[in-house]
Q: What sequence folds into this?
């Protein structure tokens, strides 16, 4: 039976824990803001979500363009590492967040971090995917993320009631940290090195 190469497995593993962490809080993020944050309201929930997606979508093409202009994958891996580290630290700061402006700032930072992570991850995944197994390999990634989305959404509310939001953000940090650490072992795989003209 076909088995993806080690780099692809590590990329999927990392993505699984990154999305798994944030999926715990996303379905109940509105409750967190409205009940625990000064200035939090239904309107500011929409603003916070919009900030993340607008920042990420605005900045992402610039990072991606730079990655494509520099030959090799050293820069991709650097963006991936830096973005993952920043995204991993964000939930720690959420533990101490008290104002809606803190939330807006953290969502801005998270947007920039994911703008580095996403194009780097997709670029490396695309270049290293096993030939003739593209559909199956992408399905593995989609299945892993879909599975963790479902499980995390199922337990998020239960966890919030049982251990509170501060503890949830620490759990998110731990899950993201697992995904981040996995990427620091990617260097051992067949990374494409920069060409010298």
A:
């Amino acid at each position: 039976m076909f088995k993806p190469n080690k780099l692809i497995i590590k990329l999927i593993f990392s993505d699984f824990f990154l999305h798994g962490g944030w999926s715990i809080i996303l379905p109940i993020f509105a409750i967190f803001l409205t009940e625990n944050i000064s200035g939090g309201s239904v309107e500011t929930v929409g603003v916070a979500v919009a900030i993340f997606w607008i920042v990420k979508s605005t900045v992402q093409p610039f990072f991606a363009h730079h990655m494509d202009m520099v030959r090799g994958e050293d820069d991709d891996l650097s963006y991936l590492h830096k973005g993952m580290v920043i995204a991993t630290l964000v939930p720690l700061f959420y533990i101490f967040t008290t104002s809606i402006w803190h939330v807006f700032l953290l969502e801005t930072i998270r947007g920039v971090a994911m703008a580095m992570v996403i194009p780097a991850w997709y670029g490396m995944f695309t270049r290293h995917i096993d030939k003739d197994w593209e559909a199956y390999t992408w399905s593995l990634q989609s299945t892993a993320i879909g599975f963790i989305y479902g499980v995390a959404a199922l337990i998020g509310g239960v966890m919030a009631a049982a251990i509170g939001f501060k503890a949830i953000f620490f759990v998110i940090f731990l899950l993201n940290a697992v995904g981040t650490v996995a990427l620091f072992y990617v260097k051992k795989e067949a990374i494409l090195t920069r060409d010298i003209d």
Notes: Residues 134-163 form the longest helix (30 residues).
